[in-house]
Amino acid sequence: MIEIRGVRKSFDGTAVLDGLDLDIPRKSVVTVIGPSGSGKSTLLRILDFLERADAGTVDFGDGPIDLTSTKASDIRAVRARIGFVFQNYNLFLNKTALQNVAEPLIYAKGVKPAEARRIAAEQLDRVGLADFADRHPSTLSGGQQQRVGIARAVALNPELLVLDEPTSALDPEMVSGVLEVIKQLGRDGMTMLMVTHEMRFAYEASDKVVFIEHGHVIEQGDPKRIFEHPQQQRTAEFLSSTNNVLVIPAAQ
C-alpha cells in the first residue's frame, strides 16, 4: 500500500488541498475525478515535487517522506519510485522516440546506453510504436506522442505510475489508443494513480475511484458503486453534470 497523508496546499491564501488522505493499493488503478479546480492535478504534482506541499507525507512502505522537504535526498527518493505522464507529453523535440525513452534511463538510472536502447525499444513495442522508434515528435500524432511519454515513464520501472489528464490534449479520435495502452498496463499489474475527465474510462479501467472537491475526498470506492450508486449527493450531482459519463449501464 502506498499511503498519502495530510496533504495541504494553498495558493494566495486559498486552500486547494486541505488535509487530503489517500491509499493506493499495490497493483491497482486508482482514478481521481472531480470538478476543475478541485486539487486533482496539484496532488499529482506535489507527489513528484513539481509543487511543494504546505504539509503532508507519502509512504511507499518503508516510512513516510515529508512532501514539504527541500532535501535533495528526499526528492530523489520519491522521484526514483514515480513515473510521471504529463498532459502535454513533455518530449524532447530534437530527440527520436527511442532517444526520448532511453536517455532518462541513461542519465537518471545509470543504465548503459546499449541496455537503455534495448529497454526503450521493448517499451515502444509495448505501446504499439515499435515502427516509430526513429521518428521525431514533430512527425507523430498527439496520441503517438503521449504513448511515447507513457513508454518513457514505464521504462523507468516505477513503483507508481502517475498520469495527469493523459488524454486532455488529444483530439477525440486519438483518445482510444492511449486509453487502451493504460488499460493494458493495469491488466499487467502496474500500480497507477490517474486524474482524468474520461468518466467511461474511469468506470471501466479503475479498481478504485476517488471523487474530490475543494481539496477533500468526498467519496471513494469501487467504480461500479461510485458511478451507479453514489452515497454522497455531491458525487451524484457531479456525475450527472458530466457529458461523457455512462453512470448506469443500459439495462439488458
From TrEMBL:
Class in the EC hierarchy, top level: hydrolase
Enzyme Commission number, as recorded: 3.6.3.25
GO-annotated cellular components: plasma membrane
Record localization: Cell membrane
GO molecular function: ABC-type amino acid transporter activity; ATP binding; ATP hydrolysis activity
Domain ABC transporter as annotated: residue spans: 2-239
Main location: membrane
Transmembrane residue ranges: none
Keywords: ATP-binding, Cell membrane, Hydrolase, Membrane, Nucleotide-binding, Transport
SUPFAM superfamilies assigned to the protein according to its UniProt record, in alphabetical order: P-loop containing nucleoside triphosphate hydrolases
InterPro entries: AAA+_ATPase (IPR003593), ABC_ATPase_HisP-typ (IPR030679), ABC_transporter-like_ATP-bd (IPR003439), ABC_transporter-like_CS (IPR017871), MetN_ABC_transporter-like (IPR050086), P-loop_NTPase (IPR027417)
Membrane topology: Peripheral membrane protein
Name under which the protein is recorded: ABC transporter
Organism of origin: Bifidobacterium reuteri DSM 23975
